[in-house]
Design brief:
- The protein has 316 residues and is of the alpha/beta class.
- The chain has a domain of 206 residues: Rossmann fold (3-Layer(aba) Sandwich).
- It contains 14 helices and 10 strands.
- The strands form 2 sheets. It has an 8-stranded mixed beta sheet.
- α4 crosses α5 and α12 runs antiparallel to α14.
- It is globular, with a radius of gyration of 21 Å.
- 35% of the residues are buried.
Length: 316
């Protein structure tokens, strides 16, 4: 483990049309209902059991994602305000260096959100970048940004990517894995769409890093749900290795940062961060009350709030 200290034209069409095309291609390759005894078939639809199961699982994962999608539909317009200190350029260069990217590298940003990282990848890192996210609201914000036409934007869930096998050299996932219902399915899909020797780069929090965050002093109800959602680093590395990634390793990062209590209140009220936006209204208001009490006693003085992240990299 390395510890690094930091310094102070989109395609049209629905997900289901894409999946229909993808499944059609797969059935042509692996066997459709007609004339194949190895696939049990649905006589009414003419689809193989494999395809029917896949489509049912897609619908199931979409339904399980609805609560998160509801949050992001509300948060999308103000989402970037809560990420003004994301140091996007640093992370883009770090990914390029650690994943050994070149201008010819094909990059897939899974859970791309409003596209801050996605668009930046196109500036001098890669000529082919695709951004995938299940939230149409987030993608609408991404498409409204300068240079967004350089990116191909697709509405999809990570567990079922409507993309060709072996299309990409690098998959980037920034603060998204904890939102994914089927993490292992997403890992298997990432392997499918990566080319030989391709790399997955996951930017996330370890459980230790989560526990260090001062926001949970005021919103303790959020910590348990975050620990459940975030896969801790040893387990994440084990999942990647189990499904076929090799030479899996990680890097830990920390940079000094501060926030005003009033900024935490604004983040909670405007639901900038999903860890607060997905809380119940009651729990969120309790946290805001704690912050106001802190301000009453101590003033609106800065609280140490270091940026801490872990980047996990696996090679196919």
């Amino acid at each position: 483990m390395d510890i690094i200290f930091l310094g102070a034209q989109a395609r049209r069409g629905s997900l289901y049309l894409r999946l229909k095309e993808l499944n059609s291609a797969r059935e042509t390759k692996s066997g459709s209902c007609e004339g194949k005894e190895s696939y049990r078939c649905n006589e009414r639809t003419g689809k193989s059991e494999e395809t029917v199961g896949r489509e049912n699982n897609i619908q199931l994962n979409w339904s399980k994602t609805e609560s998160s999608l509801g949050h992001f539909a509300v948060a999308s317009k103000n989402y970037d305000q809560g990420r003004l200190d994301d140091k996007v350029r640093f992370w883009i260069e770090e990914v390029a260096q650690k994943a050994q990217l070149s201008p010819e590298s094909r990059i897939l940003d899974v859970g791309c959100g409003t596209g801050s990282f996605t668009i930046d990848f196109t500036k001098d890192i890669s000529r082919e970048v695709v951004g995938v996210d299940p939230s149409r609201g987030m993608l609408a914000q991404a498409k409204s940004k300068p240079d967004s036409s350089r990116v191909e934007w697709i509405v999809a869930v990570a567990e079922y990517l409507p993309l060709a096998d072996g299309r990409f050299d690098c998959i980037f996932m920034s603060q998204v894995l904890h939102h994914i219902t089927g993490k292992e399915a997403a890992v298997k899909e990432s392997l499918r769409v990566l080319d030989r020797d391709g790399k997955i780069v996951i930017r996330t929090f370890s459980h230790e890093q989560l526990r260090q965050k001062p926001v949970f002093r005021f919103f303790p109800e959020a910590l348990s749900s975050q620990l459940r959602g975030y896969t801790d680093i040893p387990e994440l590395e084990a999942i990647l290795t189990h499904h076929g990634y090799r030479s899996v390793h990680h890097y830990s990062y920390r940079s000094e940062n501060y926030m005003l209590p009033s900024q935490y209140i604004e983040a909670a009220e405007k639901r900038w961060w999903s860890m607060l936006g997905l809380l119940s209204d009651e729990d969120r208001q309790r946290g805001i009350a704690r912050l106001r009490e802190y301000i009453r006693k101590n003033g609106d003085t800065k609280i140490r709030n270091d940026d801490v992240f872990t980047m996990v990299i696996g090679k196919k």
